[in-house]
Task: structure prediction
Amino acid sequence: MARVLVGVKRVIDYAVKVRVKPDKSGVVTQGVKHSMNPFDEIAVEEAVKLKEKKLAEEVIAVSVGPAQSQEVIRTALAMGADRGVHVEIPAAEYELLQPIHVSKILAKLALDEKADLVILGKQAIDDDANQTAQMTAAVLDWPQGTFCNKIEKTDAGLTITREIDGGLETIKTKTPAVLSADLRLNTPRYATLPNIMKAKKKP
Result:
């Protein structure tokens, strides 16, 4: 596996108490702390671990969203991703962006970057859709492993342990593939200050 593409979404921080706008059109995002979607942090950690085990050569973090999405790409770079791709969507249009749009963008990037693996968080904590990974796999016509609890590289491809209702399921898949990270896959590392400084120089 040469290249791993990881999706990172900027969401309202999980510790923030969300308030609904007075006109009920959505939630208040102005002046609210945002951070990387927690499931995407797990996806980044897994990609970086693959690189550390010499199973991947390059980790590319991708975010689709307004200018502020650069923050979460920087976080991914500080965690160990090699470079970032920001697909900028103006804030006004971003509110209309659906998982189907993101999955088409990710699929196109996966082909352009010749990725061998796409790892996404299983869902974002803002819309809770849990659709992007599955739709990205469908657009690419690649095998998918969702709700990953454990990912192991084999000669034939990957052996994935999935979290399902009532237990765990093990599947084997060939690469290229699309995976979605579940909560117990790993514990994401904190970005250290030296790595945050290094991230500033990454493309």
User: Anything to note?
Assistant: The longest helix spans residues 38-52. The beta strands are 3-7, 10-12, 34-36, 58-65, 83-88, 117-121, 144-153, 158-164, 167-173, 177-181. Residues 134 and 144 are 7 Å apart (CA to CA). The chain has one domain: 2-200.
